[in-house]
Structure formats: structure tokens, C-alpha cells
TrEMBL record:
Name the UniProt record assigns to this protein: VOC family protein
Organism: Aciditerrimonas ferrireducens
Sequence ranges assigned to domain VOC in this UniProt record: 1-109
PROSITE patterns tied to this protein: VOC
Pfam families membership: Glyoxalase
Matches recorded under InterPro entries: Glyas_Bleomycin-R_OHBP_Dase, Glyas_Fos-R_dOase_dom, VOC_core
Length: 147
């Protein structure tokens, strides 16, 4: 990891607000109180895609614009991989692997984000057993639609 290259990517591409509070770490955020700690460990990062970070965008159109932008600057900023934008698990988005091997999902969520899973008790499978994939799909209500 090169702290200055990483900072440049996060500021210029993602638009993060950044405070570098020492030589090997910085705090980043985007339009809210939630922060990510970025730490230079001296070891390569190989974050699995399923352990990704998330950035909520305002609409399907914003996701499409972000995908186009990231695709156009991928070589300049050392972006390792960008998946196609698509509808999946109740939202529209795509994944990008940054120059340090961290995965990010940029997505348009339904109104309220993922909070609908807390508003519908039937979604909680705690204590339930014996579901297979087909049964789960037929049991679970569809997520709210994107507007």
C-alpha cells in the first residue's frame, strides 16, 4: 500500500473526506458519521469479495454513472477489477477491487437501505432449522423495489 496513492484514489474517485492522523493510517468517510479506518500494514491485502465495504448511491442512474467513471479511470488509479452493474439481492450495484485489494460495493438500495430486514420479523431465521435454498427463496418476501 502506498498511503498517498490510496488517499488520492479515495479523495479523487470516491470523494471521501480524509484525516490522516499518523504516517500509517487515516480515517475516511463519505457524507455521514460512519468512518472507515485505513491502515498500512506492510502486508498485501486480499479481501474476499463477500467481505466488501459498501457505498450507497442515490439511484440506479448514479450507479451506472459511477460504473462508467470507475471503468474510465481504472488504469490511472490502479483499480484491479470491476464487476458488471446488475440487479441482485434487492438492489442495483457492482463491485470494485481497489488498488490495495479492498472490495467495495457501490449500490442503489431500496428506500431505507437494508433496514427493511429489521422491519419484517419473518426474515429472521434465528432458531429455525432445515431450510434449503429453494425453500428459503419461496419463504422469504421479496425486498422492496427500487424507486
Amino acid at each position: 500500500m502506498n498511503m498517498q496513492e490510496t488517499r488520492r484514489f479515495y479523495e479523487e474517485v470516491f470523494g471521501f473526506e480524509i484525516v490522516q492522523h499518523n504516517t500509517v493510517s487515516m480515517m475516511v468517510r463519505l457524507g455521514g458519521q460512519h468512518c472507515y479506518a485505513v491502515v498500512e500494514t506492510g502486508k498485501p491485502t486480499n479481501m474476499p469479495l463477500l467481505n466488501h465495504n459498501g457505498l450507497d448511491l442515490g439511484s440506479v442512474e448514479e450507479v451506472e454513472k459511477a460504473h462508467e467513471l470507475l471503468s474510465s479511470v481504472a488504469s490511472e488509479y490502479g483499480i484491479r477489477k470491476i464487476t458488471p452493474a446488475q440487479f441482485q439481492h434487492g438492489n442495483f450495484g457492482f463491485y470494485v477491487c481497489d488498488l490495495d485489494g479492498n472490495w467495495w460495493e457501490l449500490l442503489a438500495n431500496p428506500p431505507g437501505g437494508y433496514s427493511y430486514v429489521f422491519d419484517e420479523p419473518e426474515r429472521d431465521l434465528t432458531g429455525r432449522e432445515g431450510f434449503d435454498e429453494v425453500a428459503l427463496r419461496s419463504f422469504m418476501p421479496a425486498p422492496p423495489r427500487l424507486s
